[in-house]
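Listing S7. Sequence submitted for prediction.
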Amino acid sequence: MLRRVVVLASLLAACGDDDPSAHHGPPELAALPTARVTESRCLVGVADGRAPPALLSETGCVASVVPLVPTDELVPFAVASPLFSDETKKMRWLAIPPAERAGYYADGSLDAPIGTIFAKLFRHGDDPLELRFSVRGVDGFVYFTYRFEGDDARLLDGQETVAITVSGGREATYTFPSRESCRTCHGAVGVLGPTHEQLAIDVRYAGETRRQIEALAALGVIEPRIGRGMPSPHDPDAPIEARARAYLHANCAHCHRPGGFAPVGLDLDLRWSTPLQDTRTVCVPTQFEATAGDGMRIDPAYPDDSVIVRRMHAVPGDFPGPMPPVGRSVVDDFGAELVRDWAASLDASLCP
């Protein structure tokens, strides 16, 4: 037990922890590098089609696996609204090729140059579970993950699962994704978290509060951009609609958007940037009752019966089935109640 506590303390000191549910202030991150590296060593050749190494220790991305210490090539970042993944905590890094920087597409999503690497650590309590990578290659993004075992982490070829215990003594079936299954959610947008609205927040770098967009721009890894970000769903001072929509953006909008992984013809658009009336949520009935059930997607008069709320409370085997359908095996009670409370706050007379 002592070794595990020491490992976790070292990991947090090296990486920071951007879990927004742990506090109401800015996410805590490690200090930024003082300068960008001049030569890429992390996952060299993967963007050009080379297979990733079999072990995390062989990737050139970490100075140490246990405790996990990323190299200075990997720059820490945080997002305003993270994806719920069976109560795991996450840490994130990006590596932009030397002499290049990321820009933005028209919708605010990050336009990362070829060779860009995104890394995300998932941990359960004191235990690191996996380190996922998204690499922008010459033929599009490639996705793969390393599962921690002993003193290293091995590259996974296929999907694997492990049972973990979460709040309330519930048993979750945590899923390590296969390389192809990542495309289910990532296919429409490449990378999900790093959008302007998600990055334009205050963070604390080793105790110093800075605007993240400005800090990353000053380091030279992304282009500067003016504009406000979305709030954290856990921010009690933010309007409830903004908090609920930020949650839905992070957990649902990767599929529920134009071109997303959703039934052809589905008109639901849960992106943060979409005006509320164009999201097709409030007072709008479901389109496909055979799979979604019948009722209003968001019903102010009957918030608990809102289809979106019901599906957020669902687990595998329920009808209608859970949303999101992958990436979680237990209910995020916080998120489901947040969206339910937003529905209840709306004027019931909005619906005919």
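Caption to Listing S7: primary sequence and predicted structure tokens for the chain studied. The mean pLDDT is 89. Residues 157 and 216 are 33 Å apart (CA to CA).
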